Amino acid sequence: MSEAPIRIALVGMGKIARDQHLPAIAGNPQLVLAATMSPHSPGVDGVAAFKSMEALLAAGDTFDAVALCSPPQVRYGLAAAALAAGKHVFLEKPPGATLSEVAVLKEKAEAAGVTLFASWHSRYAAGVEPARAWLADKRIDRAHIIWREDVRVWHPGQAWIWEAGGLGVFDPGINALSIVTRILPRRIMLEAATLSFPANREAPIAADLKLRDTDGAPVTFDLDWRQTGPQSWDIAVETNAGTLTLSQGGAVLEVDGHIHRDEDREYAGLYQQFEALIRAGVSDADVTPLELVSDVFLTGRRHTVETFED
Ligand code: NAP
């Protein structure tokens, strides 16, 4: 017997909600968009639209789950209110502004008997699972990540990203960490970090990280938001059987002289996973990438660099 579609309320109608969440929900017959909530941005024609979480929750049993696409600094309050109302919760990345609030959300979801999903969209890029499978039985000698992009192109006018808790260059950088922590066979730990903060901003514009896996293999990470011209979202892993490269944010895998490229299904994959978790009555809230970013902010050396204006 087929089950009723899961009714989703989409919260925070900004760039990612419109670019990715709306088409992914529309493309999945197991889901239906039941409502939107955003303080200022418009909703979607023909779908109930609300301006606050209180107003959305007052709509009662008209939806089953919320997908939270707000900035991370306000995510905990929105998620806690939805969980208290018995709704399943999909968290955009990063799952929260702090590790402690995500731990509390896990407890609340468990107590309410609903699903909490900490989504990491880059883990659903086409090359990631084949890379993980290929690396599983290899000796890892070293890995290098380059994530260099132009913040003016990708995050124009997003004030929250430069405020405390917005993560700055780690907003995209955490995507690289979500991939590396998925494909490498062993856990990685931070050894040293250098952070560059514009003199007028609360979040970094660039960083250099040195990490190691539990067998001592070095992993370096070069992260910069001041890149103009060609952009780089590349990971190279040197092994006893040759070098594996993942480029274009995990979309293209090159290994053994073969190039593996598939259609972009990141958000389709995320929503399939959310639906499967809800149907199975379980949660998936891995915080490993956020732990590493938290370690960077705990221990990194800070340099002040020139001011940045949008
Ligand atoms: P954005 O364009 O600035 O949109 C954020 C939206 O959140 C705004 O439209 C704002 O709504 C809404 N919002 C702010 N406070 C809210 C509140 N209290 N309750 C409900 N909604 C609230 O940012 P974005 O690029 O979509 O990023 C949002 C999240 O998605 C971030 O965590 C980011 O890391 C993640 N993400 C972004 C991308 C990307 O390519 N942009 C990719 C993957 C993941 P109003 O306009 O109504 O004020």
Automatic annotation (TrEMBL):
Domain called Gfo/Idh/MocA-like oxidoreductase N-terminal: residue spans: 6-117
EC number: 1.1.1.48
Source organism, top-level taxon: Bacteria
One GO MF term attached to the UniProt entry: galactose 1-dehydrogenase activity
Keywords: Oxidoreductase
Keyword check for Secreted: no
EC supergroup of this enzyme: oxidoreductase
One Pfam family here: GFO_IDH_MocA
Protein name: D-galactose 1-dehydrogenase
Organism in which the protein naturally occurs: Sphingobium boeckii
Lineage, broadest ranks: Bacteria, Pseudomonadati, Pseudomonadota, Alphaproteobacteria, Sphingomonadales
